[in-house]
Amino acid sequence: MRDEFEKRNPSPGDKNQNPKDIGFWALIAEDFRTHDRDVFVPGFWVLAIHRYGNWRMDIRPRLLRLPFSLLYKLLHNTMKLVFGIDLEYSVKVGRRVRIWHHGGIFIGAVSIGDDVHIRHNTTMGVINREERWKKPVIEDRVDIGPGVCILGDVRVGHDSVIGANSVVVRDFPPNSTLFGVPARPVNLKMS
């Protein structure tokens, strides 16, 4: 079972997972624009530290990477303590991701696509400690409301919306609108 998951989601953490089609500084500038060019937005700083954590993985040999890794660890832990946002460098994060509010955010996904919006009190991660490798995949342009939990080996399809306080524990196709505990698709009629 774990082998099947690892084939679908190769092990991160030992390589730079920043988007390949844009350089490090251009990526930081894009994240800054995504966060309304506001230097005081915690989401921007968390993403900048995340991008730095991935960038350092290109430094060879490993011994030369050590001071950069120590700085990353210090910055990452400071962000967790000060802003309450935990985003490890091993999560593959796409471009123009927006973290709207700070506080109570744990992002332990396999990957997050481009143009994803994440709000406060959001948790993405494992559903139980016996299966720590089973983590979610969030595709492009997903809008995640406050208080959402996305748990286990699930995939949320592109262009989906997850309503506040929903708990996602199974896959959903693209263009889904999800609400509830557990999350269920709803068909919203616009008048």
What can you tell me about this protein's structure?
It is a single chain. This protein has 191 residues and is α/β, with parallel strands linked by helices. It has one domain: UDP N-Acetylglucosamine Acyltransferase, domain 1, CATH 2.160.10.10. 28% of the residues lie in helices and 18% in strands. It contains four helices and 15 strands. The protein has helices at residues 2-8, 24-34, 42-55, 62-83; strands spanning 85-87, 92-93, 98-99, 105-107, 111-112, 117-118, 123-125, 137-138, 143-144, 149-151, 155-156, 161-162, 167-168, 177-179, 184-185. Strands 3-6-9-12-14-15 form a six-stranded mixed beta sheet. Helix 2 runs antiparallel to helix 3 (42-55) and helix 3 packs antiparallel against helix 4 (62-83). The N and C termini lie far apart (46 Å). The mean pLDDT is 91.
- What count of helical segments does DSSP give? 4
Give the CATH topology.
Answer: UDP N-Acetylglucosamine Acyltransferase, domain 1
Please give the share of residues in helix. Answer: 25-40%
What general form does the structure show? globular
Provide the low-confidence segments as ranges. Answer: none
Number of strands: 15
How many domains is the backbone divided into?
1
How are the elements arranged and paired?
Layout: H1 2-8, H2 24-34, H3 42-55, H4 62-83, E1 85-87, E2 92-93, E3 98-99, E4 105-107, E5 111-112, E6 117-118, E7 123-125, E8 137-138, E9 143-144, E10 149-151, E11 155-156, E12 161-162, E13 167-168, E14 177-179, E15 184-185
Parallel strand pairs: 1-4, 2-5, 3-6, 4-7, 5-8, 6-9, 7-10, 8-11, 9-12, 10-13, 12-14
Antiparallel strand pairs: 14-15
